[in-house]
Amino acid sequence: MPRRIDNAFEKEGIFLEDKKRILIIEDEDSICDILSYALRQEGYAVKCAFNGKDGLRELEDFSPDVIILDLMLPDISGFDLCRKITSKYKIPIIMLTCRNDITDKVLGLELGADDYITKPFDIREVTARVKTAFRRMENLRQSLSNRQIVCINDHVSIDKKAMEVYKDGVKVKFKPKEYELLLLFCENRDRVLTREQILDRVWGLDYEGGLRTVDVHVQRIRKKLDVEGALSIIDTVFGIGYKMCSRD
Ligand code: CA
């Protein structure tokens, strides 16, 4: 017996085309209810699917802008679903995971999830994460358009054409791998990157230097670009990896 698809927003007569759409794939009714209520209050159109099969169908029918995906589903694991979705679509995925399971988080991020939320969650955190996901999509769209000078924060900018980095208007010497790493963070603003992902993207899978290489290079970038008394240009996400946050 297939479970219901939540069509409440259609009954409310809200015009879908004006709203950003969020698909929640989660089998627990109570969590779906809390999330969809809060996200609708924020002005999003929300649909819930209660298993992986319905979730995949809603990807086509509802065409969401962001997906909130639970790890534990009755018919398919959230990881498998995540892999399926990211192989075909460029939709930000926020994974719902259980408390403190770092392995789950790392695996989720490596399968292409953009972010994760730990259960039990604070609903304000969820809405904040969703906003970040939308902002990240917007940043991505902007960086794909022809901009050559990218401002990372009030102090630091990158000239992508010249492959140069500036701090307070002064050129800072960057080694090629340091530059590549900075650019990787810049293009994945607000997204947690695992150390494995970073190593893979900047140094390649065959590189034998190990994860420590990533830490060392992050330290070098911080040393070159951090401003005294301000937050670091790159945040450490404990046990997982690193993230460059929007500071606006
Ligand atoms: Ca579940």
Describe the structure.
This protein is α/β, with parallel strands linked by helices and 248 residues long. The protein has two domains: 8-146, Rossmann fold (3-Layer(aba) Sandwich); 153-243, Winged helix-like DNA-binding domain superfamily/Winged helix DNA-binding domain (Arc Repressor Mutant, subunit A), CATH 1.10.10.10. The protein contains nine helices and twelve strands. The chain has helices at residues 8-11, 29-41, 52-61, 78-88, 102-110, 123-144, 176-187, 195-203, 212-225, and strands at 21-25, 45-49, 66-70, 93-98, 115-119, 149-151, 156-159, 164-167, 170-172, 193-194, 235-237, 241-243. A five-stranded parallel beta sheet has the order 2-1-3-4-5, sandwiched between helices. Helix 7 (176-187) packs across helix 8. The radius of gyration is 20 Å and the shape is globular. The termini are far apart. It binds calcium ion.
Explain briefly what this protein structure is.
The protein has helices at residues 8-11, 29-41, 52-61, 78-88, 102-110, 123-144, 176-187, 195-203, 212-225, and strands spanning 21-25, 45-49, 66-70, 93-98, 115-119, 149-151, 156-159, 164-167, 170-172, 193-194, 235-237, 241-243.
The profile of the biggest β sheet is: 5 strands, parallel
Percent helix among the residues? Answer: 40-55%
Strand order of the largest sheet: 2-1-3-4-5
Strand and helix order:
HEHEHEHEHEHEEEEHEHHEE
Query: Which small molecules are bound?
Result: calcium ion
SS elements, strand count: 12
